[in-house]
Structure formats: C-alpha cells, structure tokens
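Final report, closing paragraph on structural work. Over the funding period we assembled a curated collection of sequence-structure pairs, and we close with a single example.
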Amino acid sequence: MVAIKKILCPVDLSEESRPALEMACEWAKRFDAELHLLHVVAGLSDPYPYLGPPFNGAMSWETMIRQKARTALAELTLPEGFESLKVVLELRSGSPSNHIVDDAKEAAIDLIVMGTHGRSGFSHLVLGSVAENVVRRAHCPVLTVRPAEPPKPTP
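Its predicted structure, as stored:
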C-alpha cells in the first residue's frame, strides 16, 4: 500500500470548495497525514489596471487582496471532528494550477485533494479547468471532488 504522509488541498475559500476540504480532512485523519491548505491569489497587477489605486494609496490592489486572503485562510475552520489535524497553511500569488503542481512537488505531497467547479460548455472553454490542468501535470495522484448538489426546489 502507498504511504500517504502529506496531503495538499487547494482552497479558494468558497463554500464550493468545502466538500474537497472535508474529503481531504477524512483522508488526512485516516492516514495520520499532514494537511497542507493552499490558497492562490491570481495576479492582479496586469489584468485590472483600470481599477486604479486601492482606498489606501500606500498599498497595491494585490497587496490588499493578499492581506484579506491571508486573514481568510488563517480563519478557515476545519470541519467538526478534525481540529486535531496537523495543518500547514500556504498563500501564493500567480497561476493556481502552476502553484498547486509546483508546491506539491516541492513539499513531497503524496496526494492532492481538490474541488471542481463543474463548469461546462463555453465557460469551461474560456476559463479552462484548474483541476484538469493539475490532474494532467501533477507528480502524485489527484482526487477531484465535485461540489455538493444544491437542494432541489420543492414543487
């Protein structure tokens, strides 16, 4: 059997990423593995120059967003029953798929557990798929978790 000592779970800090976090916690607990939570802030300096300076002129938009992301990542709560897991928090800026693949290799990650947004059609064509890119390029197994099904409306 393959030893799983380190698990990487990329999180975008949305509710849609929660099922992947729960799955990663389950695997980490089962294998007594270290859980690495990675959030990647997409680079903002080039694509949004029209936004102008942020409210605090001494700080760039990217710096402000990184500070907010750092706070949100630090405040991220693990699902109930998993509070005793050993967790490593990482915050990066740039391409999510590149950082996931590169960080996984550098940290000798044994398993990546990540969510998918379930995009299809035109939005998948235009936006691509971080999960798909990671599956193709990762040095280790990748477990993808679909978002929870929204509740069906009652008639």
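The chain is about 35% helix and 20% strand. The longest strand covers residues 34-41. We thank the funder for supporting this effort.
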